[in-house]
Amino acid sequence: MIDYQEDWLLPLVFKIQGSVYYRSLCFALPSSAFSVGLILLDREYNFREDLGMTSQDNSVLWSAVTAVLLVLVGFRSRQGLARFWEGTGLLHQMKGEWFDTVSNCVTFTIASGKKDPAIKVQVDKFRHTIVRLMSLCHGSALEEISGMHGSLETIDVMGLNTATLKHVKDCVENHHFNKVEVLLHLVQSLITDAHEAGVIQIPPPILSRVYQTISRGYVNLLNTKKITDTKFPFPYVQLITFLLILHTIMAPVAICSIIDHLLWAPIFCFIPVFGSHALNFIAMELEDPFGEDDNDLPLAHFQAEMNNCLLMLLHPNTDIIANVCDTCVVDFEELKKNVTVESAMADSNHPKRRTSIHLFDPSFKFYGGSSQSNLETVIAMIENQKVEDRPEDGCYEESASFDCSPPEEVGGPDARVVLPDRDTASTALESAMNEKRMDGPGKRLHDPRLTQNRELELLLAKSLEDFNSSLKSWSQKMEEQVRDMGSTLSHIGSGIMASSVETTTPGVISEARTDSRGTSFSTAGMMSPAYLSAFAAAAAAAAGRPPSLRLPSPQRFDSLGPLTPPFESGW
Length: 571
Hints:
Layout lengths: L8 H5 L7 H25 L1 H5 L8 H49 L1 H6 L4 H27 L15 H13 L4 H19 L6 H26 L4 H25 L5 H24 L11 H14 L19 H7 L3 H4 L25 H18 L33 H16 L11 H4 L2 H45 L2 E4 L2 E3 L1 E3 L5 E3 L3 E2 L1 H13 L24 H4 L2
Antiparallel strand pairs: 1-2, 2-5, 3-4
């Protein structure tokens, strides 16, 4: 099939490959020359008056003569185009059904390979076998409808065992069985045996869908063979051919009776003869779209696409289970903003849209030679995108890696957050940028966009600066909370000292109390006022290095239970 573009008209008009112009010219040029000869003879002998051709000076008679021919040629052209589109549609449906068969079988073997490692070898053999059989089956089907025997490439047919190859060869050459039917039977037998052996662990009603896709694909093949086996009816072809020959001879006579000019007569004679023959040749090309002609369907391309799809099922990561990352946006409203329609983007007040990474853009390249470096590149691009979409209050979105607001739960006693100073952050940034610039000693990155402009460096520097500013603000809030905590502890300690009944250990008091909700509880193990004061002082001193989570509010202090003195726990 010819691949063409309609950007420029002249190259398209004069394209030689696949054109029917040259066969049509074999009839149109002699007809035009015949019209010139008739004009010259009439000027010499004036025979048109003797033959009564001068009365044909209107187009009514000419239209009546050519009407039947035009109807028949138009009918054949419509039928040819319909057969062409039906043929390409059936081939695509056949490919889709048979690929779906193999894809389902490969998917059904994922669970069996994970549950029993001993059966993993059988799973791999089953997958490679069914891929080779289906590739050979699809190629044989295309060869059967086109007559191109042995010219289509299949996936490693010699990788099948000797018994399978001998069986196929014997059935086709000695018994003259249909090759496609033999291969489809082998595929169904392979699937059934794999299900019995436990390679395919799927309920039988679901597995029956695989056999249905095999059957539907073969039905599409039979409908395709209907086009190749059934030609356009002979009586139509015979009548059209006769009328075209008659039209080629009579057109000059009719044109010369209307136009007596050596230039315009052959031109007006050339156009109808050329057009009618060209339409007939085009219909002939489209009636049988399977073969090796220029205007036939690209069967080799169809087979290459099928092979590529089947090879995908043998990829090492075929069994991977897709999932989302931990930083993905899960809020519906946020996702809705990210996929805003283009008409809303025209509004200047509309928020900036988050653009996705063009992972499948041809200009997108991975850096480095390992999968780890590729993953790091994608993560870095995602983080840069988050920096660009940061709101004005200095806090990142929900998908960011940290939160500017104070946390809400109590962490462990050893929780720490070490705030890097500006010098340390600058040193880390410079070191990271040096690692990004160089891919090994003395080797530049393959894509110069990350080294020639400094946009990435500026984004990273601003990101670290905003991060330090956010942590500083957070630490100030934590310091205020710790001071409130110390004051609350002092008030609680005073209340405990006033109502204490019994002291179990030095510095620790015990008392039976009733809270505001009427629930009885014991204060055994709570700290004495001295320890509470020391705890408050230690907590205030630790405000410069706050824990990673929010400390409890005074209202929640009753539910904390016994506390341990800070100096004994090493907090």
